Amino acid sequence: MITLAHISDIHLAPLPPVRWTELANKRITGYLNWRFKRQASLSGEGLTNLVRHMQDQNPDFTAVTGDLVNLGLETEANTAYNWLQTVGDTASVCISPGNHDSYLKPSFGFNAERWGDYMRGETLDEAQFPFVRRVGDMAVISCSSSVASGIGFALGRFGPDQAARLSRILKLMGEAGYFRVILIHHPPNLEARHPRLGLYGARLFRDAVAEHGAELILHGHTHKSTIYAIPGKTGDVPVVGVAAAGAAQSEDTGEDPARYNLFRIERLGTAWSCTMREFGFQRLSPDIVLRLSLRIY
């Protein structure tokens, strides 16, 4: 049996000191948003306890679906690297980066230089994404929807080249008999996509899954706990989103309190068994509790 933990949207707090010259761009809106809104809803309180609780479950592998930082500052890259080391080493943790990790065009470079080993694995060619991490019978396939965008936008992109590589990987891993888990920051949900916030290229992503199949898709971005499905090769593929790990448990933020998901995956003959448990805070309680237990397969 393999245990997979999923955590997302860390938004590490507090912000480091910011020079005014670093705000003469898109960062000014993010900075103001932080000061007047997210400083309360994403205060970072409880994150240490949430990670400790997750580690007490002894996961074999941990998937982080992006948004470790806030404004894409170079100093934030160092903070994110230090936090990642508390979660696990590069052999047991991997990342699918989010829009905040590419807040400006240079931001992804800062992050890739500092904690890029968490965003690497087996690849088909020189392209970084998608990459594969194999853990027993499980193949974790990390895609990237991380891209810099304009003021007021938090969109993601998934282009034809990455879609072609994902198709080949899904085919290869499927033929080899792996339980295929795809990571992507933005949800591939066509029904709920938003022109400023959604995933451009979601149809390409879904076409690859429909043609070659997958067993599970994990994402973040929405800061909400969600479960739905998209068509796969032999049936629907579960798509699970997790609430922001950096969220406070205040009742007036409009976002779900901080949570993580834990999956237990096991091969039973020619079939799979997969159960999901969601752990997190209550609205008005400092305790981390089991909020949901669900059998997926």
UniProtKB/TrEMBL annotation:
Q: Where in this chain does the record put each Calcineurin-like phosphoesterase domain?
A: 3-224
Family annotation (Gene3D superfamilies) = 3.60.21.10
- Keyword Metal-binding among record annotations: yes
**Which InterPro entries does the entry link to?**
Calcineurin-like_PHP, CNP_phosphodiesterase-III, Metallo-depent_PP-like
Asked whether the UniProt record includes Nucleus among its keywords, one would answer no
Q: Which UniProt keywords apply?
A: Hydrolase, Iron, Metal-binding
Task: Please give the start and end residues of each transmembrane region.
Answer: none
Could you cite one Gene Ontology molecular function of this protein?
hydrolase activity
Q: Which protein family is named in the record?
A: Belongs to the cyclic nucleotide phosphodiesterase class-III family.
Q: What is this protein called?
A: Metallophosphoesterase
What organism does this protein naturally occur in? Answer: Devosia nanyangense
